[in-house]
Amino acid sequence: MDPSQKLARAYRAILVLALLTVGAAAFGAWAWSTRGRQIVENTALFDPELRKQAFEELVARGTNLWDSFPDATVARVLQPGLKARPFTNFTIDSNDVGLRERPFALPKPDGVTRIVLLGDSFVMGYGVGADERVGSFLERMLQQHAHPVNGAPGGVAATGLIECLHFGVMTWNVISECAFLRRQLSLVRPDLVVQIAVRNDLEDNPGVRGTGALANFWPRAPERGEGIFLVDSPRFAFGTRENTWLLFGLDWESRSRLEESGRCIAELAGQVAKAGGRYLLLDNYSGLLEVAQRHFAAGLAPQQSLPFPTSVSKDDRYRLSAADTHWNRAGHELAALLLYEVIRTRGLLPRFTLDPVAEATAVAQKLLPEAEAEVAKPPSLKKLFERRVVASELAFDRLDDDAAAQVTGGVVRGGIVFPYASLMLRCEGRTKLVVAGHGLKRSEIDGVHVAVHVEEAQVGTLTIAADGSFEQTFDVPAGIAARTFVSVRFQSDDFAYALPDLRADVVFTLDRVALTQG
From the CB of residue 102, how many other CB atoms can be counted at a distance below 10 Å? Predict the structure, then answer.
């Protein structure tokens, strides 16, 4: 059989496999009958080279970007082999592993010094060309100004000994980023990892639909259905304008995500060090830098953390637009200059000596003291609380912008509750929690049990009747009641699918949630 026939056969095999997968859901046992198995086994699907070519053909015929990834925490990478795929205002190429990066060797060859830039859309390079990203600028500087400790004078550009790779996918969070690199660390073998944390890193990480478009769920928590937690969730859930308080670390929902992210960062940094590399966190959690440093850098040594001042994200010279804080070309170059100087002065590439670069030194001399001052004296939230109300009670038949913003996630218009929901209330000594609501007239969730938490403590359980209403009062532990803000959370042990497309997992309806003095 000639190569073109083999490729066509492999291409058909992938289509057959896709149809069989669909058939497994639609037609049950037939899809994996003996005849079905024979169809797949008799194809060229499992020839690695033909499989690769066939998938390239499928990707080339598509229009979307994303490919699912067999790690629920990571959820999603780019489709492999994208070529100038249009996306908003730029185009994307991808390599075989689904990153916006050139092909690179795995395992890493001996003699190569590898720097991994780890992050989300900032590292992926949203809105800029691939050669205008922070790692591209940094690689060029290092190749020009790095000298092997035991080598001859001159840079390493001619030998290509240093490479900077971008491990970044839009909407990844810190937990996803750490998982993706940690689980291939012995293959990547980075000499230095620079992880760039940003302000939306506490959000859930969306998966991918079968069409290659973004989904509205995180595969790590499939039981939540489309109850994804995003900073701007109220806009979609209620049609309101204010963002949630998820970023601020004021209640359990926010703090727990900050703390888990910090643990993942510390674990990754430890594994990198164990493998002989160095780790550096560039903390770009703009506006709340002290909060992020307190949690993200909790398990790091001082030389492993690099706070990035908020002033950069506010400066039009370095952002894509007035409405978009992603770095433009100049922003990426500024970050690269700072990183170069920090790598040089902290000795993060011990195999090399680095030339002083006046521009990089000047950037560090300006930005480092500014960031240190910002961490030492965090901004007061007084003006924010004067503008926005955080109430002790939410009535779901009359949510204004401020009230809807207290719903961190898992509740949508009409007070319909998903299997996991969290909202923030003002507490300040209130010792009773009142929860009122009703069932959804769905027999399949009659008798479902819902654990009710205030902060870290379970205060009781709701039992949902399919066609009944309820109002229950729970005691709030004294130590928790003394807190200014608390999370009230609902976690159900079962759910029903909702119309119109059965993709929302629903449990009951909330009418009112209130903290009272008793």
Answer: 12
The reply to whether 296 and 207 lie within a common domain is yes
Residues facing 509 on adjacent strands? 416, 438
- What pLDDT band is residue 23 in, cutting at 50, 70 and 90? very low
Q: What is the CA radius of gyration of the chain?
A: 26
**Token pair belonging to 492:** 């159900």
Measured distance CA(485)–CA(16) in Å, rounded? 54
Strand partners, 203: none
Task: Characterize the bridge pairing of strands 457-464 and 448-454.
Answer: antiparallel
510 backbone dihedrals φ, ψ, rounded to 5°: -90, 135
Domain that holds residue 400: 387-516
Using omega within 30 degrees of 0 as the cis cutoff, is the peptide bond preceding 109 cis?
A: no
pLDDT digits (tens, 9 = 90+) for 478-499: 999 999 999 999 999 999 999 9
Kindly report, residue by residue over 240-263, the tens digit of the pLDDT. 999 999 999 999 999 999 999 999
Contact 139, 164 (CB under 8 A): yes
Name the domain boundary from 347, 376, 405: 376
Residue 436 sits in the same domain as residue 468: yes
> Can you tell me the distance from the alpha carbon of 142 to that of 283, in angstroms, rounded to the nearest whole number?
22
Q: Which of 334, 301, 305 is nearest to 318 (CA)?
A: 334
| Domain-embedded: residue 492 | yes
* CA distance linking residue 47 with residue 50, whole number of Å: 5
Helix/strand/coil percent split, the chain, to 5: 35, 25, 40
Give the CA count within 13 Å in the CB-facing half-sphere of 290: 10
The CATH number of the domain holding residue 333 is 3.40.50.1110
Q: What are phi and psi of 115, to 5 degrees?
A: -110, 130
**Is the residue at 277 inside a domain?**
yes
d(CA 31, CA 25): 8
Element (H, E) at 335: helix 329-346
* pTM, to two decimals: 0.89
- Bridging pattern class, strands 448-454 and 485-492: antiparallel
Would you say how long the chain is, in residues?
A: 518
